[in-house]
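Hello forum,

I keep getting stuck at the same step: I have a sequence, I want structure tokens, and every attempt I make locally crashes halfway through. Rather than fight my setup again tonight, could one of you with a working pipeline run this one for me? It's a single chain of 359 residues.
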Amino acid sequence: MPKKRAFDRPLFAVVVILLGLGVVMVYSASAPDEVSGGGLAPFAKQGLASALGLLAMAVAMHVDYLQLKRPAVLYGIVLGVLALLVAVLFASPLNNTKRWFFIGGISVQPSELAKIAVVLFVAYHLDRKAESVNQPAVLVPCVSFGLFCVVLILLQPDFGTAGLILGIAGLMLFYGGLAWRYALFASLISLPALWFLIVRVPYRLKRVLAHLNPESDPLGAGFQPLQSMIAVGSGGVPGLGLGQSVQKLYFLPFAESDFIYSILAEELGLFGSVGVLLLFLTLFWRGIRAGNRAPDEFGRFLAWGLSSLILVQALINISVSVALLPTTGMPLPLISYGGSSLVTTLLACGLVLNVSQHG
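Reply #2:
Ran it on my machine without issues. Output:
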């Protein structure tokens, strides 16, 4: 077993800063609920999720990550996640989707666990046969498991998470030395599927068209992007001040979750919004650094994959907030309201910190 050393303190500090900022921003964005008599449910739930997430991160930091590459452990995780993805399709719908289990008032979103499971699975196969990443022995199981998860998540439906999982799996294979011809082939064959999933599904097509021209439907599909841009623009350079957002007063839907970056930009201004982006870039850099110093291929690809997962998800959420991408409903890691996302992201951070101890 590789010798453990001190974990990456700068990485740990970045995670704690982002988590603390997230709790503050959820409190600010959910304040109108308290005024209207809704109480501080989002803030209280975020605090509970933060505590559970920190516990999960602590466990992930202190259990040797090499245990995860044991076939019994890895395939137990994989089968468990697949079972949850199937079972959630029979759960009660919420907002016309079937993405959550509700246990004692607590929601559990299996697709969040699927993100980590896919990273673990791909890292495991790259570790076993790193020199033959372009061979069927690696590509077939990685692509099959990734596509299986994607199909089950699309049935919920959750197009954003499905695309994220497929993209991260492909990125990890590329890290492992995937030939350009395979990457180009995968891109070409994905175009018809992308066309079908967008053009043939009315609400998704409506979102894309609204993204291209939100003013054409300002009270419908274009409402969220327009209100989000108003929030970002209203903050200016210094911001309106913490707690002073106007758009969170029921102008911008899902202000504490999907569009919390917009509220952050409105209240903390350009300095705050750019600062958050720099923190995510720092988290990614330290994660890549931990992977580069890992003593084995599994640790390397695990740190690279999880760090990329967090950064790409953050960039997608931020791009939606500033109207660079259509609305997806993807949370901002460590900051947006959402228990499952917060706990699994902290678990992922704990695994990266674990790898950093073995450098």
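The chain has a mean pLDDT of 90. If your local run keeps crashing, start a new thread with the error log.
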